[in-house]
Design brief:
86% helix, elongated, mainly alpha
Amino acid sequence: MYVAWFLLFVFTTGSAAVVVFYGMELRNIKSLQWLFSSCVSFVQDVFVTQPLKVRKTVYFKELPKDGIFAIYKETIATLN
């Protein structure tokens, strides 16, 4: 697990360096916009997209084999 986090950090840092160094050929403002965009995308992926994917996967794995209709039938049976 620590290897994966290390690789994530290395590739993210490397990508940021490439954006900055490539941006030196262009204007500074453009490279800073690219860097900001990359950082926002990374943070969004780590803190929003990936947790939502995990929650969705866990939710659908926990559904009964009959699907949503089994939950509906159980709810109706408990009400009667």
